[in-house]
Amino acid sequence: MIVDYSIFRPTVKMLKDAGVTAVGRYIGWDSVAGYQQSGKNITGAEAGTLNASGISIFLSFEYAADAVLLGAAQGEKGGKLAGEQLAALGAPEGMTVYFAVDFDIADYAPGSTDPKAKLGPAADYFEAINALTPRYTVGVYGGYYAVSRVLSAGLAAMAWQTIAWSGGQWDDRAVLRQLGSEIWGSNADVDLLVASTTDFGQWPRPAAVAKFQANGTTSLRDAAHEHGMTVSELLWLTAQHRPGGYGPLEVPYIDDGKWDTAMPTGMVFWA
Q1: Per the domain annotation, does 206 fall within a domain?
Q2: Residues in Cβ contact with 190 at an 8 Å cutoff, skipping those fewer than 6 apart
Q3: DSSP state of 263
Q4: Among 114, 211, 234, 265, which is disulfide-ready with 224 (CB 3.0 to 4.6 Å)?
Q5: What is the pLDDT of residues 197-222, one digit of tens each?
Q6: Which residues is 23 bridged to in the sheet?
Q7: Is the same domain home to 252 and 118?
Q8: Co-location of 175 and 225 in the same domain
């Protein structure tokens, strides 16, 4: 299970008991002197406890919900602060920071098909962050139109889409989908998410994906376990690398569903 939260602080026991494997947390201006403090930012101690407990972390950069409308100057300041805060936390290079567009952003160019034009000053905000060539991966958080336009404009490499301001539409490129509050008594500060890939920019960084060939002695379930995955995750990952569909060795085995039996020799999978 994947969740995110801000002010609420579930204990590690609560997270583990609920089956949580990754949590979304915050960085941003909230912890900077001179700004109003709500206490939602992650701390180094918290990050250490989560990682030590086997719980991954992914991060959103957010303070004012509509900060992107302040354009390039704000993007540059925010992008620099994100890098400084990641370094202070000891976060790994390459993890994703999802810069928030936490409101129903307008279409700034309704007569245009250019996604950058439609973003207005938000495009300048993201361009300024990318211009820093940060050590982190630039991501975007927001509703359907925000994430779709930022991705299509090439201004972010990953997207975390919220159900809010999406009108029932989902961008298939979004690696995270935020579905709503569903655990701990429907706590309004806790959202349930689903990931479409094993790498959604989290910390610790996942191992690189590799291609494997079965030797006729290992079951699909054992192979998944060996690589720290569920069978569903391994099958999803394999499907992503087989756009033309499974091969003649894979189809009968997978369709049969007897994943505790040995995979046929030569069957290919990714993990």
Answers
A1: no
A2: 3, 4, 5, 8, 10, 181, 182, 183, 184
A3: P
A4: 234
A5: 889 999 999 877 889 999 999 999 99
A6: 3, 57
A7: no
A8: no
**Domain with 120 in it:** 2-195
Rounded-to-integer distance, Cα 85 and Cα 68, Å: 19
At residue 33, what is the residue type? Answer: A
Per-residue pLDDT tens for 110-158? 999 999 999 999 999 999 999 999 999 999 999 999 999 999 999 999 9
Q: What residues pair up with 193 in beta bridges, in sequence order?
A: 2, 178
Q: How long, in residues, is the chain?
A: 271
**Does 113 map to a domain?**
yes
**83 φ/ψ angles, rounded to the nearest 5 degrees:** -65, -40
- C-alpha distances (whole Å) from 263 to each of 10, 17, 159, 231, 234 are 41, 33, 35, 13, 13
